[in-house]
Amino acid sequence: MLTYLSILICLPPLCAILALLVKMPNAALHWLHRLTATVFGATMVMLVASFDPTQPFHNDYFYIDALSVWVMVIITTLYVAASWTAKSYLSREEKCGVLKGEQLQTGRYFALMQMFCWTMFLVLIVNNLGLMWVAIEATTLISALLISYKFTKAALEATWKYIMVCSVGICLALLGTLILYYAQIQLMGSANALDWVYLKQHATALNPSLTKLALLFILIGYGTKAGMAPMHSWLPDAYAEAPSLTSGMLSGALCTCAIYVLLRNLVIILPTAGSELMSSMLLFFALLTVAIAVPFVVVQRDVKRILAYSSMENIGIMLAGVGVFTMFSLKAVLIHMYSHAMIKFVLFFMAGTIIQEYGTRNMMRIHGMFKDVPQTATFWLTGMLGILGLPPFGLFFSKFNILTAMFKSEHQIAGSILVVLLAGVLIGILYHGMRMLCDRSRARQPLGDLLQPVDIFVLLLLLLATCVVGAGFENITWLNHLLSQAVMIIGG
Q1: Distance CA 227, CA 222 (A)
Q2: Is this prediction's pTM over 0.85?
Q3: What is the number of alpha carbons within 13 Å of residue 283 lying toward its C-beta?
Q4: Tens-place pLDDT, residues 127-169
């Protein structure tokens, strides 16, 4: 296990250094990027194959259990997908004049993307809550450079808002972590400071008043990083202005990392803060997040912003599932994490492709896609059906199970409100999506389908994976065992 970890920790920084310091043509940079991600993915497969979900790996600095392995699978899948689709996407951006050749020649994008994935991986393997906070802050710094990659005025403004709002949120998370540390040293001394395993073993001894205060700061702090209302204002701008591959990673991978860190902290806080308080707070912020997203989805005109508000909807659903806090709802949340990450990456990639084909982000100027760009239209429609939670995609099963858990656990009012809000999101996305697909084309002639064979292959695999994991995970013995152990880690 330690050998696999060493390879995974060393590969992305090594690729980033080579991309920045060694002068290589674009073709060589692309293959270096792909090769690194492929080796990383193969190593992850070997790690997962040798991992026993009932026996966590633990040393002084690293800790890997079923929960971290599940999120590592999500991040690695998107990392490999983004690497293999980068060549065609960036080449099209260069041809459209969005990126200049010298921007790619420096290897800056490749280095930043490798480091971005590396920092998210560190979040998942560190054992100390303080180091976990440092790693999640590092993702902010790296992803800010990716958001501002195009160096347009709008991109720089979005980056500034992202840094400011997320810095406030991450400071609140730090304050909550410090309160937990104070609660620990008050009763147990400074030994094993903020060690997650140690804190979990002694969680019942912590001061309830301090843990309840820590819960408030940690929930708002890490919720900001995930895009939870009311600290969500950075999310639409950042997702809209970043390169589409970056937007897909922000929505699918970074959001998942933030929720993972939140879950790790809730495990420590729950025994003394109580499930009633935690559930009330999580359900309140979940409904608030979805409620704020609904009107913006309905009136939206930007093809990438509507996906950003859709991410807020799914963040709210996951928070609601955690708030119910039953074994059934928690397993549904883990399935929702995976399916949302895969489908949202596909949708952001397709949004970037649509912008390249039509030369605009305004959905009101895009019509007749089925006639003009049938391949793009097919993937766009499939992604929309997936993100709305229609069968056979995984989000259908996870949404249904989360709502079922809400009605079974005496959260009927919250569940009813959530159903109405989800109906509003569904109407908004279907209205805009079907206008783009079915109306008669009235804009200038698009460039035609720009998808390459490798893009089609990767996108099909991601969509198929959501169907398999969402609908058939109980029939996959190893996967069901992994998820059951991950739920036990969260819920005890």
Answers
A1: 9
A2: yes
A3: 24
A4: 999 999 999 999 999 999 999 988 889 999 999 999 999 999 9
